[in-house]
């Protein structure tokens, strides 16, 4: 499979879950992949070479260092997958300012900083595909999870803004909206929360990270060259109800 | 492109434009393709089976699907693409014209899903992709019957998705923006310029762009995707 031949891609939050699956699938498809995270991914598990860069997505200087490094080494940046995310389950009345800032910092401001840093080379190349990970909880309400819901909703607006503003510069920006996926994040959730979401999912099962990775692959590739500002929902029918 | 080797696919409205592009892409991806239209399809490759088919004719739908079942033993993919445009505004729209457009664009999709669901329910698997339009989600001036029918396609898609998810059947919609086809090239320059002027990318798409989205949604890569609307529109709906 060579659907991303000659493309250089950064995937954030790539140490595990959706990010790691996406990094691996991109590498299988011929991309040069830079896996960025605060912890190192299990690189030896991949059949194809993947580079690791340490990146705290809330740190704009770290973003610049990573993107400059990629440009120095590879001369271009074609794809950015803003996947890094954290969750907090507190509701509006109980979420601490620290937790609110931490979740919004990673899930929302991290996406903003990633887009801002990647847009410079992508606009200069007149080509690029940015994929931002939202969530079904960025679309419909769920009890609690106030900061996560706020930031995942904001990602959808920021995506459309980026899509419209930079369409004429050849940069595409799209959102992927996962439903329930088996990841370290959901494995740490209360069992009744997981059972509730899977029970509400029409297809009746939770998906694997690779199901989201395939959506990212489509949006990253030239197969989606006319797709921008779209939301690709991958949720087993959860939001269609 | 995703690999569709071993899949059997039925595409309507395949004589030209988007349907033609979808039929070719599905075949390139390895699927056995049965392409139907009321028009001549002789320019499609010999590897694609062609059948004459009016999508408003429920009896003909049953014949086409029965033939596929007896020939191939299954039907994995249905792409309801056949459609017509109609530009009249509400105040000038004749009932007969309304009925003609609704019959093809909306009832044709219903009849197609009904016919395809029979083998798909028996198999416990299947992927339906319905072609709507940016006019299925945005509000545009005029084109009243087209507008209504393409909106209906979206809700019918979600209804099918939710109704048959537990039976292993997925249903999704693709919303093309302005695509270079005989249909759009036959439109007035004013209308085309209005659509392209409102498209952030500033240019139209090609049938291959819609076909790539259809192949993705039809494939097992999209096994967790059902009931969704996927715009392929150069950013039109995002503004």
List keywords for this structure.
heterodimer; A: 241 residues; Rossmann fold; seven-stranded parallel β-sheet; 7 helices; 7 strands; 15% strand; globular; B: Rossmann fold; 43% helix
Question: Can you tell me about this structure?
Answer:
The complex is a heterodimer of chains A (241) and B (239). Chain A is α/β, with parallel strands linked by helices and 241 residues long. Chain A has a single domain, classed as Rossmann fold (3-Layer(aba) Sandwich), CATH 3.40.50.720. Chain A is built from 7 helices and 7 strands; from the N terminus they run E-H-E-E-H-E-H-E-H-E-H-H-H-E. In chain A, strand 1, helix 1 and strand 2 form a beta-alpha-beta unit. The longest helix of chain A is centred in the middle third of the chain and has 29 residues. In chain A, 54% of the residues are buried. Chain B is of the alpha/beta class. Chain B has one domain: NAD(P)-binding Rossmann-like Domain (Rossmann fold), CATH 3.40.50. Chain B has a 7-stranded parallel β-sheet with strand order 3-2-1-4-5-6-7, with helices on both faces. The model of chain B has no long low-confidence stretch (mean pLDDT 97). Chains A and B meet through helix 4, helix 7 and strand 7 of A and helix 4, helix 7 and strand 7 of B.
Series of secondary-structure elements of chain B, N-terminal to C-terminal: EHEEHEHEHEHHHE
Q: What's the count of strands of chain A?
A: 7
Shape call of chain A? globular
Structural class of chain A: alpha/beta
Strand content of chain A: 15-25%
Give the fraction of residues assigned to helices of chain A. 40-55%
- Main-sheet strand order of chain A equals 3-2-1-4-5-6-7
List the helices and strands and how they pair.
The complex is a heterodimer of chains A (241) and B (239).
Chain A: E1 8-12, H1 17-28, E2 32-37, E3 51-54, H2 60-74, E4 79-82, H3 97-125, E5 128-133, H4 146-166, E6 171-178, H5 184-187, H6 191-200, H7 209-220, E7 231-234
Helix pairs in contact in A: 1-7, 2-3, 3-4
Chain B: E1 8-12, H1 17-28, E2 32-37, E3 49-52, H2 58-72, E4 77-80, H3 95-123, E5 126-131, H4 144-164, E6 169-176, H5 182-185, H6 189-197, H7 207-218, E7 229-232
Parallel strand pairs in B: 1-2, 1-4, 2-3, 4-5, 5-6, 6-7
Helix pairs in contact in B: 1-7, 2-3, 3-4
């Amino acid at each position: 499979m060579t659907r991303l031949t000659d493309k250089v891609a950064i995937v954030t939050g790539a140490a595990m879950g959706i990010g790691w699956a996406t990094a691996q699938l991109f590498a299988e498809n011929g991309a040069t992949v830079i896996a960025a995270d605060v912890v190192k991914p299990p690189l030896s598990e991949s059949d194809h070479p993947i580079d690791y860069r340490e990146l705290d997505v809330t740190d704009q200087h770290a973003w610049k260092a990573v993107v400059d490094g990629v440009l120095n080494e590879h001369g271009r940046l074609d794809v950015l997958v803003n996947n890094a995310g954290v969750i907090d389950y507190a509701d509006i009345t109980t979420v601490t300012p620290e937790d609110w800032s931490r979740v919004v910092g990673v899930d929302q401001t991290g996406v903003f900083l990633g887009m801002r840093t990647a847009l410079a080379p992508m606009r200069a190349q007149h080509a690029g595909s940015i994929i931002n990970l939202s969530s079904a909880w960025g679309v419909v309400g769920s009890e609690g999870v106030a900061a996560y819901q706020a930031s995942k909703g904001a990602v959808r607006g920021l995506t459309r803004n980026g899509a419209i503003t930079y369409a004429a510069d050849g940069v595409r920006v799209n959102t992927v909206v996962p439903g329930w996926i088996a990841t370290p994040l959901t494995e740490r959730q209360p069992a009744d929360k997981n059972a509730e979401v899977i029970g509400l999912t029409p297809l009746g099962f939770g998906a694997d990270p690779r199901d989201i990775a395939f959506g990212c692959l489509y949006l990253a590739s030239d197969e989606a060259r006319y797709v921008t500002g779209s939301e690709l929902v991958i949720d087993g029918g959860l939001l269609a109800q | 492109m995703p690999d569709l080797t071993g899949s059997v696919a039925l595409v309507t409205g395949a004589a030209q434009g988007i349907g033609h592009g979808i039929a070719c892409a599905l075949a390139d991806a390895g699927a056995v393709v049965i392409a139907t239209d009321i028009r001549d399809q002789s320019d499609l490759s010999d590897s694609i089976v062609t059948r004459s088919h009016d999508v408003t004719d429920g009896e003909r739908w049953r014949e086409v699907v029965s033939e596929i079942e007896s020939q191939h033993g299954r039907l994995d993919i249905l792409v309801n693409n056949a459609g017509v445009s109609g530009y009249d505004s509400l105040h000038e729209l004749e009932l007969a014209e309304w009925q003609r457009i609704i019959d093809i664009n909306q009832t044709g999709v219903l009849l197609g899903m009904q016919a395809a669901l029979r083998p798909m329910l028996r198999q416990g698997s299947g992927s339906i992709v319905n072609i709507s339009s940016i006019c299925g989600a945005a509000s545009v001036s005029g084109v009243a019957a087209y507008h209504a029918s393409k909106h209906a396609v979206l809700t019918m898609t979600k209804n099918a998705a939710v109704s048959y998810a537990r039976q292993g059947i997925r249903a999704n919609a693709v919303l093309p923006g302005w695509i270079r086809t005989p249909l759009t090239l036959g439109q007035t320059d004013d209308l085309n310029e209005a659509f392209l002027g409102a498209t952030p990318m500033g240019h139209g798409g090609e049938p291959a762009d819609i076909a790539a989205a259809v192949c993705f949604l039809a494939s097992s890569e999209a096994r967790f995707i059902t009931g969704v609307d996927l715009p392929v529109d150069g950013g039109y709906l995002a503004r």
